[in-house]
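Design job #97: recover the sequence.
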């Protein structure tokens, strides 16, 4: 199962390179179900894996000029503060069991995985139903109120990302496409930049609370980085419409798998 987990690490990078998000959608289930880590440790490791891999992808995307840095910073600053606060303050203080109903215990681990599945499902559904933006619309101007709305949503994304150990790409990409009307390929590049900053800051909030197995984590991350180069190369030859639909259906499938695993 551990060997399959390392193969999964390659797929994590591949997905990040293709769709600018979704790495955590694979990383968390792989670390929990294949490697056998607890959900809390898995969400911490996921932040490092996804953040490091996204950083490599971002360095490559800077050369192509496909990153919208202004929009990225509007997203990144509030989401970074939110995800760091959740990982450093909220997660360490959650009780092991949230509540009980008869003999059933609703644990923090179950809560994290079910919340993860619900958020993933909604993100996938929104991408399937939304329209594809093929190119920029230069006549469209966004005012202060619009960027305030984006920043507010970024806080919510940061809180969710912190709880479920995600870089938030599966939330950021739909937000960029739906709110900013950004072309999907630009949204992918911009999302990777946001994920890189947000995830690594979030992981830093765990350093005092979780014992890190660095040899395993660095090996898993290295394999994932190889995957992102493959994904970025494939993305160049893939249509925006296909990428968007693939993103949506992929996230729906993963949400269903996680819910099934947790309930059974």
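Job complete. Output follows.
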């Amino acid at each position: 199962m551990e060997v399959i987990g390392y193969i999964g690490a390659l797929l994590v990078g591949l997905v990040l390179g293709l769709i600018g998000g979704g790495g955590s959608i694979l990383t968390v289930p792989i670390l929990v179900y294949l490697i056998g880590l607890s959900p809390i440790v898995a969400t911490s490791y996921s932040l490092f894996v996804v953040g490091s891999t996204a950083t490599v992808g971002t360095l490559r995307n800077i050369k192509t000029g496909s990153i919208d840095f202004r929009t990225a910073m509007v997203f990144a600053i509030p989401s970074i503060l939110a995800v760091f606060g959740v990982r450093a303050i909220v997660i360490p203080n959650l009780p092991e069991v949230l509540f009980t109903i008869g003999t059933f215990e609703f644990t923090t681990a179950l809560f994290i995985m079910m919340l993860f599945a619900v958020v993933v499902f909604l993100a996938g559904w929104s991408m399937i139903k939304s329209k594809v933006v093929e190119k920029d619309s230069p006549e469209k101007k966004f005012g202060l109120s619009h960027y305030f709305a984006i920043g507010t949503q970024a806080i919510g994304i940061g809180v969710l990302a912190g709880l479920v150990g995600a870089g938030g790409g599966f939330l950021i990409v739909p937000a960029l496409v739906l709110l900013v009307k950004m072309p999907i390929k630009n949204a992918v590049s911009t999302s990777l930049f946001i994920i890189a900053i947000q995830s690594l800051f979030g992981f830093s909030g765990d350093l005092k609370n979780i014992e890190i197995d660095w040899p395993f984590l660095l090996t898993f991350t290295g394999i994932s980085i190889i995957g992102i180069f493959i994904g970025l190369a494939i993305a160049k030859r893939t249509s925006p419409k296909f990428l968007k639909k693939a993103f949506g259906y992929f996230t729906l499938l993963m949400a269903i798998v996680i819910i099934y695993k947790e309930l059974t």
